[in-house]
Amino acid sequence: MGIQKPAWLEALYTQKFFAGCSYHETAKKNEKNICCLDCCTSICPHCLPSHRFHRLLQIRRYVYHDVVRLEDLQKLIDCSNVQGYTINGAKVAFIKKRPQNRQFKVAGNYCTSCDRSLQEPFFHCSLGCKVDFVLKHYKDLSPFLKACNTLQLSPDFLIPQDMGDDEMTNETPHSTIVDCDEPMSSSSGSSGSENMSVACTQIVRKKRSGLHVCARSANRVSNNEDMATSMSRRKGIPHRSPMC
């Protein structure tokens, strides 16, 4: 007996996407539009810190149906002969079957499972149609499965703007923080300001649009030091002259 549907494929069929996340009910943009293939569950963008090292697949909507980019799906399973559709410049494929009842068939190309009209030379209108066809005729899905150890979200995935600093720091596998190897010096003077400046510039936040370096100005540090020095030079607390 061959290999049946893997757990991640069952999750694509059974999980409910684009519903509100129960863990982030009060957060904005909490729709579950990501499928974690390792946990086999649907998650929202605010759940990403807990799944940042997992294989993640973005789910999209097209004509009220769930679709996935063909480029991402091809890394998991052979999608040959599955008809793709173009949305926002990207080729996508439907996940589930879309049955279409036809009383009369005319000459043409139709899906092997749901009788939907297709373009040449495609045989399946969705991933589900191909999987059912393979299991029905070959009884084994293993030759069509591909080894995929890492799968990241596409660069056009939008991160909610209201995510906190802690969430933004660990929001996706693309994010990274470079910590300073040496602790900052607490002594005053030019050496202290230089260490503080270097330590701050080593904090790197990588977002989908590129690298943003968070640096603290050395002039601000020097101004604070000058203020502390001037305060230390004060001779004493002024006293009010006695009233006559």
UniProtKB/TrEMBL annotation:
Coiled-coil regions listed in the entry: none
Top-level taxonomic group: Eukaryota
Region described as Disordered: spans on this chain: 170-195, 225-244
Pfam families assigned: PLATZ (PF04640)
InterPro entries documented for this protein: PLATZ
PANTHER family given in the database record: PLATZ TRANSCRIPTION FACTOR FAMILY PROTEIN, PROTEIN RGF1 INDUCIBLE TRANSCRIPTION FACTOR 1
Protein's recorded name: B box-type domain-containing protein
